[in-house]
Structures are given as C-alpha cells and as structure tokens.
Specification:
Order of helices and strands: EEEEEEEEEEE
Distance between the termini: 37 Å
Radius of gyration: 13 Å
Length: about 120
C-alpha cells in the first residue's frame, strides 16, 4: 500500500502561482508513475500531470498548455506540481495519485492510490 498526503493548496488571483506537494510513504518502491488529478464538485477526476518514478518522462494534459510543471524529490519521497498563470477554470480539488501498473505510460485510467486532496481556488 502507498499513502499520499497533499499540501500547498490555497486561494490565488488569476495569473498567480502555487506549488503543490505530495508526500508519499509505504510501499513506494512499487510505484511506477505518480500523477496529479483534479476534480470539480459534480464532475469526475481528470488527469493533470504525471511523472515516471525515474523523473524522466513527464506527461501533461492538453489543457495545462505549458503552465504547469511536475517534478519530484526522491530523497524526500515528494512529488510537486508548480502551477503558473492560474485561471479560474483551474479551481478544483487537486489529488495526488500513484500507480504500480507498469513502467510505460498507459494513460490515466489505472491510478489506484489517492491522497485526500487539496483545494485550489483561483479568482
């Protein structure tokens, strides 16, 4: 099992920036990809960005449009999401997630470990 805890959310004006953090613990050696998802109430979660365990293959959703950067610090077992040029449409609960599905990118549908979420509000 893998435990994930997000932090760093908050309120920001349009055009501002935030950096989210996700601390991972448990059986982290089994993780092949980690990712950030987001969810608006009443809608399903959508993938935002993902990163392989080696940190060499970042994946971004089209709607990020170059504004977000995913990174990790393996020594601290921490995943980050730097969000720049935030817009009101980015308002959501952001979730950290992880999968041990495989060592290749296979899409957003196989992430099974989830953090509790952190609220991001852009106005």
């Amino acid at each position: 099992h893998v435990q994930l805890v997000e932090s760093g959310g908050g309120s920001v004006q349009a055009g501002g920036s935030l950096r989210l953090s996700c601390g991972a613990s448990g059986n982290t050696a089994s993780v092949t990809y980690m990712a950030w998802f987001r969810q608006v109430p009443g809608k399903g979660r959508e993938g935002v960005a993902a990163l392989d365990s080696g940190g060499s293959n970042p994946i971004y959703a089209d709607f990020v449009k170059g504004r977000f950067t995913i990174s990790q610090d393996n020594a601290k077992n921490t995943l980050y999401l730097r969000m720049d040029s935030l817009q009101p449409d980015d308002t959501a609960v952001y979730y950290c997630s992880a999968t041990g599905y495989g060592d290749r990118w296979e899409g957003w549908n196989h992430f099974g470990y989830w953090g509790q979420g952190t609220q991001v509000t852009v106005s």
